Hints:
This protein has 416 residues and is mainly β. It contains 3 helices and 23 strands. The chain has one domain: TolB, C-terminal domain (Neuraminidase, 6 Propeller). The protein is 3% helix and 35% strand.
Amino acid sequence: MSYNSSFLGLISGLAFAVVSCSSSATKNGEPADADTTRLPAVETEAPNSGYKPAFEGQTRAAGVKTTTPYEVTVLNKELKNPWGIVSLPDGRLLITEKGGTMRIVAKDGKISEAITGLPKVDARGQGGLLGLTIDPDFLSNRIVYWVFSEPKGGGNLTAVGKGRLADDEKTIEQAQVIYEATPAHDGTLHYGGRILFDKTGNLIVSTGERSDLETRPQAQDLKSALGKIVRITKEGKPAPGNPFENNSEARPEIYSYGHRNVQGLAFHPSTGDLWESEFGPRGGDEINRIVPGKNYGWPIITYGIEYSGKKVGDSLQQKDGLEQPVYYYDPVISPSGITFYSSDVIPEWKDNLFVTALSGVHIARLVIEDNKVVGEERLLTDQAQRFRAITEGSDGALYAVTDSGWLFKVAKKASE
């Protein structure tokens, strides 16, 4: 059955929905009989441009539909501009709020008082306290890492902080800034902002190119940290083994470049590959599989156009030496946080990528096979929420936050 906002009110902030269809599905979410169970593409609006994809399936993949009954619960509506979310070892959630505080949310949805003690953030525009992650040894050291827009030199920049969550969970102790994505810029847009650990115990961090025409070319500049994915140690130094560590003409922390504004980072649970979601302008949102040292093209190639309707640069979509997105959106969905589903609780979701959409006001489920998107589903479309970030809990449920302060839980429906 479906539900709406009035139904939400009747049950005091909790909402439930079950979505099902009759087709069977394999372990990876692929319908067993593609000839009879494939649905039309979920995107039905006309694109902003007449650009053609570089290969079949690069955009507007066939629709799929989850067959496992699941339920959607609104756990809380009291968060203040939540931006990042991570699951703690005990199953609770640690969440950043854009204004500069963190909160812990219990399994029943109750939120803690604001956790303070973090460095000052510039919360104007798209800035503020952004993504976060916890140390692999969090149980013993309680160390938290976060990304934020740091006031600096008459402007601001994307920075990485770390500190210890106090035993009473009211403050972050010994907070320090370990990395700054220079140069600073006097603007309020495109900070990137996601952070996670790789299997070697180093940090992967995304930055933005700060949006303005004057800073945009720095996405291609290996001497600049703007428009990049960087890989650093827990102390903020360039991580060993980075692709440019022996290149005197490049910053050694750079992992990949040519990015516009990456707000989603996730590792594929089976292949170990790093994937990202990236905002385009009008059209050209991207889902990329990241290969170290590669150039992802912005602003030289794009499937988007300027907000004014003009072409971007030379209006190129392909060029030798520049990576093609695995998938792109036109019109945009504004993809923010992403996570791969690794649990066995809902087997057909295994290894699927879940993407939170801001302007798209839904959560996209992408079925990926051989590094290509072969199916797409749009979940929670009736909530009219700007979904900002998502994570998988230890219970096999998905947890997502929205710009308006709601926390959703998406879980397998309990047997009746």
